[in-house]
Amino acid sequence: MFHIVEFRESSEVEVVPDSWVKNNSCLWPSYKSVGRIRQAICRQEIPGDSWKSFEIRVLCTEVTYQDARAKLPRAAVTSDLQSDENDDRPAYFKRKNRGSKMFISSGSEDELESPIFRKRRNVEVGASESSAPIPAAPSVPQPPPKIFRSTDSRENIGQQTRPASNFGMVDSDTSAILREILVSLETLKEQQKFLLAHVLKLGSGGPTNIPDVTDLGLPLASIQELKDLDEQIRVRPEQKNKLTTYLGFTGGVNTKETVWRAMSTLLTNSLAKEINWSGANRKLAFKSLSIKGVVLNAVRKCPHARDATDKEVEQYIARWLQLAPDRDGGRKERAKSAASNTSFERE
């Protein structure tokens, strides 16, 4: 036989063998392992000398442990209905948990690693307490996905939560919707950029079609190619206008980015290493080329650099040429070379 009992000191309910109960007292094992306590209950183990005695109230009696466990949730609610109104103990004392007075699961042994206490709902008692029917136990709320799931009917009667399956569906649906929204926003941003550029071009009266510059051989890769193109734009105004329009379409969010995008479209980085602004160290001077004027005019075609001064644009051109050795992995190569030389000198 098994009793469903209420421990008076902590107001917790549990299933215990009838052999543990005597004169409104229940002996409780001193085992620390939840699994060991469960075995003791199921096997109706004979109480030992180290077991402690607690005052209890018998709520229900069943023949088998399984039958008693099945009625445990309803017994917990019934216990509240019968005792809460007349209990003058402070609320914090009722909620106090005693060390090993645990709710023992009927699930697998894997579930026994963490102590789980039976918490009972505080039910507001109406005037017609004795005639009110016992409410049915609520549906079992499942934990969210990726959290350990119990196989028994442990319901936290004091909480009203939705099943985990709903949480999973909501999370999945929400993630899919958010992804679609983000993709749509990115698409709208790109479309907005295109339309804005198109409107600005129309407003400035400039051409809206990107010219074909395949005959110019961009980006230029050698000093000779640069000199040849510089000669073309000096003697052929149509080539100069075509190159200016083409470089103006590179765009940018500010003057610096506009200049650097135009320069990287015009020259390869290997060629930029052989050029500087002033012609120092026997390098080709970019400031003396006719292409310099093309870059100045092309940069001002961008709405964000329309008011840029010649000096500002020239400073960004000089800086872009100066940083050519650092681009395309040049800085890392120099660092490796310096480290190798240092280690060689130490040896």
Automatic annotation (TrEMBL):
Region entry Disordered, spans: 127-151, 327-347
> Per the record, where are the segments of Polar residues compositional bias?
338-347
Q: Which InterPro entries match?
A: DUF4806
Q: Pro residues bias: where?
A: 135-146
Amino acid composition bias (Basic and acidic residues), ranges on this chain = 327-336
Top-rank lineage group of the source organism: Eukaryota
Which residues are in the DUF4806 domain?
218-291
State what protein this is by name.
DUF4806 domain-containing protein
Q: Which organism is it from?
A: Astyanax mexicanus (Blind cave fish)
